[in-house]
Amino acid sequence: MRRTKEDAAETARQILQAAESLFLEKGYEKVSLEEIAVAVGVTRGAIHWHFKNKQGLLLAIRDRGKEPYRKLAAELSNNTAVSVLTKINDIVSELFERLENDPRQRGLIRCMMRLDISLTESDGICGATFRRELHQTFIQIFSAVEEEVRLTAPWHAESAASVFSATIVGLLSDWALEHSTVRLSPDGQALVKMILSGLISETCCQKNSRPED
Amino acid sequence: MRRTKEDAAETARQILQAAESLFLEKGYEKVSLEEIAVAVGVTRGAIHWHFKNKQGLLLAIRDRGKEPYRKLAAELSNNTAVSVLTKINDIVSELFERLENDPRQRGLIRCMMRLDISLTESDGICGATFRRELHQTFIQIFSAVEEEVRLTAPWHAESAASVFSATIVGLLSDWALEHSTVRLSPDGQALVKMILSGLISETCCQKNSRPED
DNA sequence: AGCATCTTCCTTGGTTCGTCTCATGAATGA
DNA sequence: TCATTCATGAGACGAACCAAGGAAGATGCT
């Protein structure tokens, strides 16, 4: 039956692929494992060998789809000389445009949303939800921001990160769930820009204005 | 067994009540209809007589929990003389405070989120999701706004309503799903205020600055 | 290299659990 | 009286999950 170790990885990949398209096409709970199995050409047991259970499939699909956001985190963590405000803005804008142009991403985000709800309901710990990871990322970012520039009025790093990540997730979920109400590309970008300029007092971003120089 | 018509309504109410607490306590998919039935003291058949299916329970729970938002829509629709900006702001702020002080609301919002995902996945029409209704409300609001005051820069009624409702839903879902990251009461309110003042050019809102007086 | 053995990968069959249906019946309300 | 409403209980059906087995690569030993 099986020929090589790579063959096994290939069937796992095929299972994941079939699951993703079927989930996107028919909805998670309308798809049975049997259906996925016959789509690939294996039996149910094969799925349970490679993945723990049906939710494990969802987890794996999500992990495959996390690269765009890891990229976001990576690009934000390495400090460059440009203003932090415009930097965050650019990264998020680019992310939004990439999502708009990749139809697969909508299904992936739907998977993440469903998984987030299931994880928070089942695990009391609710570790590693999508929103939580995004939130952690932004806490780091805004903590770094707080040292360089000043956050306006009542904001501090954590509250700013909270509302900012909530906004991002709100935009993404609305875009993923509703058919064509929110447009990430012009509208979401503009909103992000507005919020950022509201959170960060831009005048402090000038490097050469620091007194100890 | 059954005594009167009111008794029947009472058991339906009890079923709904038990379902809501169990869903909140253990998570939707971990709760079986059998469990709900014995909690009330009936059998599964009784649940299926009053509600179409398990998702019907969720729908009914959501409908019971929609009053706060209907109230929001109602208060926003009747025009008072105050500035539209401050009016929206006040209503949303009051909503946020009410939610923060009512622990039941978190579970209800979780129900709405789960239902929204299921509805968009199963029904192609995805009619009457929570986010869609909220979006519709804000479209009306901002359309009315557009006639009185001016929306800033690139915004028009629909795009403003889209991003605004997305933000609200983002805040609500984050608050409902994560344990204590987002605080609606000071942080969410401040964000809403910031966004509103960014969307609406406030200078036009002064009633007494109009030339025809 | 060649054999034995282990491990990996997958099938088959079966168990369990949950939703939903249906036939039945009791009490009510007209 | 008698149809309707409310509810029971058994059972059909489907789907997730489990366990034993087996076949073929992978691994170790000489």
At a glance:
Two copies of one chain form a homodimer. Chain A is mostly helical. Chain A has helices at 5-26, 33-40, 44-50, 54-64, 67-77, 84-101, 104-122, 130-148, 157-177, 184-199.
Oligomer kind: homodimer
Q: Beta-strand level of the residues of chain A, as a percent range?
A: under 5%
* Range of helix content of chain A: over 70%
- Within the CATH hierarchy, at the fold level, what is the topology of the largest domain in chain A? Tetracycline Repressor, domain 2
Q: Report the CATH architecture of the largest domain in chain A.
A: Orthogonal Bundle
Name the shape of chain A in a single word: elongated
Given helix and strand content, the structural type of chain A is mainly alpha
Integer count of domains of chain A: 2
CATH classification class of the largest domain in chain A: Mainly Alpha
User: Whole-number average pLDDT of chain A?
Assistant: 86
InterPro entries (chains A, B): DNA-bd_HTH_TetR-type_CS, Homeodomain-like_sf, HTH-type_TetR-like_transc_reg, HTH_TetR
Keywords (chains A, B): DNA-binding, Transcription, Transcription regulation
GO molecular function (chains A, B): DNA-binding transcription factor activity; transcription cis-regulatory region binding
Protein name (chains A, B): TetR family transcriptional regulator
Describe the structure.
The structure is a homodimer of 213-residue chains. Chain A has 213 residues and is mainly alpha-helical. Helices cover 71% and strands 0% of the residues of chain A. Chain A contains 10 helices and no strands. In chain A, α6 packs antiparallel against α10. The longest helix of chain A has 22 residues. Chain A starts with a helix and ends in a 14-residue tail after the last helix. The C terminus of chain A is likely disordered. At the A-B interface, α7, α8, α9 and α10 of A face α7, α8, α9 and α10 of B. Chain A binds a DNA duplex (30 and 30 nucleotides) through α1 and α3.
